[in-house]
Amino acid sequence: MIDSEDRVIKKPQLPSSPNIKLHETSLSRVMILLVFVSLLLITGFTLTHLDTANVQLNAAVKELTSTLHQMFLQPSTGSDGLGELLQGLGMSLLISIMTTIIGAVFGFFFAVLASKNLTNVYLGTIIRVVMAVVRAIPTIIWALIFSIVCGLGSTAAILGLSFHSVAYLTKAYSESIEGIDKSTIESLEVTGSKFWVIVFQAIWPTIMASFVSWTFIRLEINFANAIAVGAAAGAGGIGYQLFVASGMSFDFHEVGFIVYLIILVTFLLEFIAVKIRHFYLDR
Amino acid sequence: MQSSAKYLTRKGWYQTAIIAIIGGTYILGSWILNFDNLSGLMAVPRAFGWLGINFQPTAKSVEYLPKIWQKLMQTVLLAISSTVVAAIISIFVALIGSKVTGINGFVQLIVRGIASFFRNIPLVAWSMILLFSFKQSDFTGFLALLLMSIGFLIRAFMEIIEDEASETMLALKATGASYFQVIFQAVLPQILPSVLSWILYMIENNVRDATLVGILTGTGIGFIFDLYYKSFRFDAAGMTVLSIIIVVIGLELISNQIRKVIL
Questions:
Q1: Which of A14, A135, B205, B217 could form a disulfide with A167 if both were Cys (CB 3.0 to 4.6 A apart)?
Q2: Which helix (H) or strand (E) holds A62?
Q3: Are A137 and B244 in contact (CB under 8 A)?
Q4: CA A216 to CA A210: how far, in whole Å?
Q5: How far apart are CA A260 and CA A72, in angstroms?
Q6: How many CB pairs under 8 A join A and B?
């Protein structure tokens, strides 16, 4: 009560310093600066120590231009023929759709079990750590490992891609589940609902939109991965034909045609994803 | 008005139809691809058993460790430098191509087209085309990762600029600031944390992708894994995978910490 008088009657103060502080120094600003500087230093170091195998830049660029010219301006079906290429494309697309379905189903169950607001901490942590390890191993290595156990072919590709999809989607879904308002879950809990009733009546409808959009993002990633796996592990699909045309027969006209086909499919996938996302967001 | 019973029946039919379509696609797919679900499922424990026996690091595989780490560090450095160079290029392209800071509609359309084009050409195609003219060297791997990252980062940066910077920009424009003042005093400082977050994500991603590029172009960690794997030195291959896991998770942890501070 006594010192309140001081607060009420404040003496007018002149602005003390003439220079206005434009930027407040905070931990975040220092951190950003620090990270950028170290990244630039690393880049500088790497670029000056890069092993270029004494490539003649002029000649290489000229060769690249002529290759790109062959690819994009004179595409042709090459020795494989249109039918076989379309078959390979369909195979890659089917592999990516199937692995996305597997990833979505298993990913959702693991995500429910791993979310902090639904289950106990220990189970959640174990699933999280396992998924982080699975995600750290590149898809191509998974496919190579499975190709030894079940032989070269689509089975190895599907299993290899599924592993990474499940781990990726588990993380994505569990992040959206954890974003749910606590009251939604509590209001069902007080009615005495069982665990899976809560999951399917409260959580599933709430995360539907983000579930759909994450799943379609994964579908696009899986299509790219299916091509990569086909090329590097010989696991079927258009990736293998792409690898043969560009690395063995050097038929860049065919490479161009395959690239056009792939771009067409990715545009189509993106278009469908946008349509379906709008459909779910509008409901 | 719709009765609740009718609504629930319709909802039930609707859900059944969606599940039937997805399940049908799956069954049709496994039939076309000759994918035997049961033996596929059985292959998973067998694969892990095989991994447990063959990938076990032995006393001998420790000898490979210095070489593996050297290649792995080289790969990480390559991933970082390609991401940083791609980010520097993409930030300028994104500035002239975004809806709020862009020059005009025509340029925006071209930038969007280029970004989507670079993004959608598969990494395999980039690696193989570049391998043909730039030969087997780290530079080829660098270029393949660079071109792929540019496509992703241009789109990401444009979305960041459109989401985060438009209000700040408007405020500064109202004071009569010039275009470059607006860019350097409002837009860039505003988007910097998000940009950094995307760069960190891209680095993680590029370390993983570098394995694929390495297998195809014969550089870095991908090459050394492929070499050990195809010459049946599985203990060394297991060591390589273990090193990749440690480095990728380490990078993820570091960037999560950085994100916590900056965002």
A1: A135
A2: helix A57-73
A3: yes
A4: 10
A5: 8
A6: 197
**What is the CA A273 to chain-centroid distance, rounded?**
15
Instruction: Provide the angle, in degrees to the nearest 10, between the axes of the packed helices A154-178 and A81-114.
Output: 40
Nearest to B140 by CA among A20, A57, A69, A71: A57
Tokens of A147: 């190709």
What CA–CA distance (Å, rounded) separates B143 from A190?
58
Residues of chain A contacting B36 with CB distance shorter than 8 Å: 155
What span, in angstroms and rounded, lies between the C-alpha atoms of B237 and B215?
13
B137 contact A CB<8A: yes
One-letter amino acid at A136 equals A
Q: Does residue A232 sit at the B interface (CB-CB below 8 Å)?
A: yes
| Cβ separation B44–A97 shorter than 8 A | no
User: Would the CB atoms of B244 and A138 count as touching at under 8 Å?
Assistant: yes
Phi and psi angles of residue A99, each rounded to the nearest 5 degrees, phi first: -70, -30
Beta-carbon separation of B262 and A31 below 8 A: yes
Residue B208: which of A63, A71, A138 has the nearest Cβ? A138
d(CA B230, CA B238): 13
Per-residue pLDDT at B136: 80
- pLDDT tens digits, A36-55: 999 999 989 988 887 776 77
What CATH topology corresponds to A100-282? MetI-like fold (1.10.3720)
User: Is the CB of B81 less than 8 angstroms away from the CB of A47?
Assistant: yes
Helix (H) or strand (E) holding A219: helix A204-233
Pure H helices in chain B? 4-32, 37-54, 61-97, 105-120, 123-134, 138-160, 166-174, 179-182, 188-217, 220-230, 234-262
Query: Considering chain A, what is the average pLDDT of its residues?
Result: 83
- Inspect the interface and report whether the beta carbons of A43 and B50 lie closer than 8 Å: no
CATH number of B59-262: 1.10.3720.10
Q: How far apart are CA A254 and CA A153, in angstroms?
A: 23
Mind listing the pLDDT tens digit for each residue in B26-51?
888 888 887 777 777 887 888 888 88
Cα gap B118→A36, rounded to integer Å: 25
Domains in chain B: boundaries:
4-53, 59-262
Amino acid at B59: A
> Does the pLDDT at position A189 exceed 90?
no
Question: Which residues of chain B from 30 to 89 reach within 8 Å of chain A, CB to CB?
Answer: 30, 32-36, 39-40, 43-44, 46-47, 50-51, 77-78, 80-81, 84-85
CA-wise closest residue to A231 among B217, B134, B225: B217
Asked whether the beta carbons of residue A158 and residue B33 sit closer than 8 angstroms, the reply is yes
> What's the ipTM?
0.84
Against a cut of 0.90, is the pTM above it? Answer: no
- Three-class SS state of A181: coil
Q: Which residues of B28-59 are buried (b: 16+ CB within 10 A; e: fewer)?
A: ebbeebebeeeebeebeeebeebbeeebeeee
Distance, in Å, from the CA atom of A112 to the CA atom of B138, rounded to the nearest integer, reads 43
SS3 of A77, please?
coil
